[in-house]
Every structure is written in structure tokens, then in C-alpha cells.
Specification:
InterPro entries: DUF4148 (IPR025421). The chain is mostly helical. The protein has two helices and no strands.
Length: 73
């Protein structure tokens, strides 16, 4: 009876150990990426898109700031 419990416990620990297995080496998601444009060109494109209103200038997080006036000094 004890041997069966021991075998079951070892099987459970082996399954749990393999569930937490991770990749041993970090690989950056942009590894090997080579841009074809310069930073100045990208900034110019961004400024042009902002002037045309093609991009969002500000993100709304759903919480409006409300300031209540007070009678106290």
C-alpha cells in the first residue's frame, strides 16, 4: 500500500515540475530587426501625422479630474 502511495506521489511531483518548465535563454522579441528609416524621418512623419490629426494626441483613461471649489481658506 505504501509503495502505491509513493509511486503516485512521485508521479504527481513529476507532472507538477514539468508544468513549471521555462525557457532557459531570453530572446528579445525584436532581435534581428533592422530599421530602414532614420530617426529624423520617423520624427518628421510623426509631426506631420499630428498636424493632420491622424493620431490620438491624448489617451482617455476613463477618470475625469473634477475639482470642487471650497469655502475654506
Amino acid at each position: 500500500m505504501n509503495v502505491k502511495n509513493l509511486i503516485a506521489a512521485v508521479a504527481v511531483f513529476a507532472a507538477a515540475g514539468s508544468a513549471f518548465a521555462q525557457q532557459t535563454e531570453f530572446v528579445a522579441p525584436d532581435a534581428g530587426f533592422k530599421s530602414t528609416q532614420t530617426r529624423a524621418v520617423l520624427r518628421q512623419d510623426l509631426a506631420q501625422a499630428a498636424n493632420l490629426g491622424a493620431i490620438a494626441q491624448r489617451q482617455h483613461d476613463g477618470q475625469d479630474s473634477v475639482y470642487v471649489s471650497s469655502n475654506r481658506s
